[in-house]
Amino acid sequence: MKTTVFDLIWKLKRELERQGHEKIDLHRFTHDQAYRHAILLNIDITELPISKPLQQIYTELLAADTLELIQEVELPPEPISTVNNTANTSIEAVNHNNKPVYMVFAIVVFLLFSFSLIQFTNTTEKSTVSRVNKSLEKQPLSPSAPLRTNTSTVNLTSEPLADATVQTTRSIIQGYQKSTPSTVAHNTASPTTPFRIQGSNTIGELLAPELVKAFYKSQGATEFELIESEVEVEKSLAISHPDNRRHALVPIFAHGSSTGFSALAKKETDLAMASRRIKDKEVKTLASQYGDLRSKSTEHIIGMDGLAVIVNPNNPIDHLNTEQLAQIFSGHIKNWKALGGTNQAIQIFARDSNSGTWDSFKSMVLKKHGVALSPQATRIESSVELSDQVSKTAGAIGFIGLPYVLRAKALAISDDQYGQPIYPTSFTISTEDYPLVRRLYIYEPSTISTQSDAHKFIEFVLSKEGQDVVKQTGFISQNIYKTQPMLTANLPQTYIETVNNAQRLSLNFRFNSGTFVLDNKAVRDLERVVQFFEKNPAQQAMLIGFSDSIGDPQGNKSLSLQRAKAVESALLARGINIKNTVGLGEMAPIASNSTKTGRERNRRVEIWVNSNDPTSFNTATR
């Protein structure tokens, strides 16, 4: 069996991170020898759960000054004794040709194990029930989460355990102890479950585990292990404190945004992750249990993400508009030749129906143009797997969260055929100028105590430190920075003159639909703007309001100034002096005015800054 050097290095990166190594920059790991060697100083290849022949291959590769990433490598055959059979721990799976022999062997092992289990149950059942109930009475926070093994899930509650669940509970605890680090495994106390989190795969696959880890690290925890189940999108983070008495297990189940709200309804989770805003019907369904989940105190935007459209790296196409995307993903355009590409059939990959990524794409592309996804599309639950399939399949196209582009090629996207194609970058996503941008949410029910770990976790995520983790994980932080954007010739001259010599902050203020009331993100961003000016006291600010193009141009200009004035009042109330506030009406649209979503994106307020320069900030357009 052959594979490429790049595939081997990529799998090594994932294995090291799974073993507890901090996140590795794949590009630097493959191209920067000093960075690679610095990482290798702290690891021992021979301790990884891979065969000795494969260890030798890795040793030779990593000793090289440069890596020929496209070079093919012949993988050695591996005997069954060298394989770690625990789910998701082996870097390379082994092809077993002697299936009947292994089946007989597996049956014998199963029978022996069953007999031993029965004997063990008869002698320890009572003591196990007592031990589990005592440990659960000590848990100080929210109801315990499901602890999942490969085959069973059981809710550990303070209610007496039924006889039928005793053995399952024991196997779960024993399985947990066998899979955790030695510090946790030999801990005498049972693990608590401070909170549970379910929902979006976009958030849950990479971002949520890193945020939970960083939060508990800030609380003094010293050891962490991400325990993955047989179900790829279900994992738990084991956390150990230095006193060797307290340890916890935070379940993170990431089957898609819809499942987070379903889990809230069933009280199977404490926090719900979503890569799209909660729907009206979900708000109504959950209102009796949790109140208004769209309120400022319950709806938290934890970061930004661009919905990248990816193609095979060999595809010469560089940009598409949303109408072309709709035609491709609905199956109406079947060959790249129709778009100016090569004569090659289009292979469509899409996220599964529970995914917030899918909901966002369906809303921003398919529903916008009145089409449905082609029945020939391949649906995939995992973000990483989808990206991997697109990068390896000729003629492939898919959509994915920005951090999961990996080895695929991202396209520039325009809102319509007359719009400017925009690549998904940190700045175009943080300002929401990119057409396929979305907000990432965590919903915190009003029933959560402000003293609980769940609430403190949310506070950490929204802090500067938490947003730094968002950035490190590959998503777009909400921490504010300034930049000098490219002012292209197709922008109105009035706009260019207004921002002369100024720099733009990395956010736009937006409003609740049809109002002059700032939305939840904008309210949070006000505090971030205050922090920016506290650190940059010499800066002066200008607010520029914009509108959609529906109606009278002069009326739109007046509306845009009203929006800018609403932001001005909010900042003045927080002690921030605004040098200039202007309204430019329907100038410089960033989205199509033919749709409701596009019009809402065009109704925005930009904030620009400059040093104390009396010649800056032209007031002629006031």
Automatic annotation (TrEMBL):
Lineage summary: Bacteria, Pseudomonadati, Pseudomonadota, Gammaproteobacteria, Oceanospirillales
Cross-referenced InterPro entries: OmpA-like (IPR006665), OmpA-like_sf (IPR036737), PBP_domain (IPR024370), Phosphate_ABC_transporter (IPR050811)
Transmembrane region(s): 101-120
PROSITE patterns (alphabetical): OMPA_2
Annotated OmpA-like domain residues: 498-613
Gene3D superfamilies with a match to the protein in the record: OmpA-like domain, Periplasmic binding protein-like II
Keywords attached to this entry: Membrane, Signal, Transmembrane, Transmembrane helix
Protein name from the UniProt record: Phosphate ABC transporter substrate-binding/OmpA family protein
Superkingdom in the source lineage: Bacteria
